[in-house]
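Entry 12.
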Amino acid sequence: MSATVELLAAGHDVTCYEPGSIMGERSAGATRIFRFAHVDPDLVRLAGEAKVGFDRWSEEGGRPLLIDAECVITGVDLADRAAAMARAGADYELVGAGSGRLRLPVVEEPAVALIDVGGGVVDVDALREFLTDRGGRAVVHEPVYRLDITPGGAAAVTAAGGRAEYDALLLAAGSVTAHLAAQVGIYTWPLLSHHLRCTFPVASGNWQAWIDLPPDRPGTYQHSAGPGRWAVGGHVDPALTVWEAGREAAEVASRAALLDYARTYLAVDPTIVDEIYCTSVPNLGDGVHVRRNGPVVAIYGNNLMKFAPVLGRDLARTVVGGAI
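Predicted 3D structure (tokens):
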């Protein structure tokens, strides 16, 4: 959607195929963590560009898209993240329990934490509204079944409404990216897993977002999902959430793991009041992966929605002939 908005603004004729709700698959939910705290300095710098873009979109839309809550990182890789942030000029603090700088609904504060001062939460509902307002006229709500590259070098799309040809095509199709990319000779990471995020009641407070990556138990990401609501997603045992396990079994396992985590470590009411299901890409890590074959550009990765303004800008340039 962000690339669609950029292409339309540049005067191009654009069709955006979307089989379901806009941003309804891997960008699901009302809120998502935004952070500078990456291990790769290039991703830290990309987050800085994205922050500038989100601020610009917020001004244009008349509604904040980022909630400046800060983001706490605990567990592994703190030194690497701090070094990458320092190289990229991002603001951070290393603190300990009892420092007075941690605002987390926990039973016991972590011994050491990195505070990503510029981090916070993306208001996904506001972002969806903004992008839909700017680019929704280009959206065709049809599933795509097949892609081809014609002998003349055009990109052909076969969707529910028929076949159409385009000068260029950007493929960002979530769980079906690998399947469609293979049809036009592009390899993307094929593995998928099931992922569940649960929301619990919590006392009202100015909570920070939190990514907890302890060495002795599965990691989690957590943040406010609105007043009195605390969202928790966990990296559950991969054997239980692998694609072949099936969605229902993966949800049961994830729900049990998150409930146990909430009861043991969090100062929340361990009652699930909301759930968000999405697909995840295992064993890939953070970052952006772009592949091209002729008129088709495919993008995949993890946590890409948080870079939406800068990715939309750069992908729009790429599909109309620029370098990757």
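Annotation: The chain has eight helices and 19 strands. The mean pLDDT is 94.
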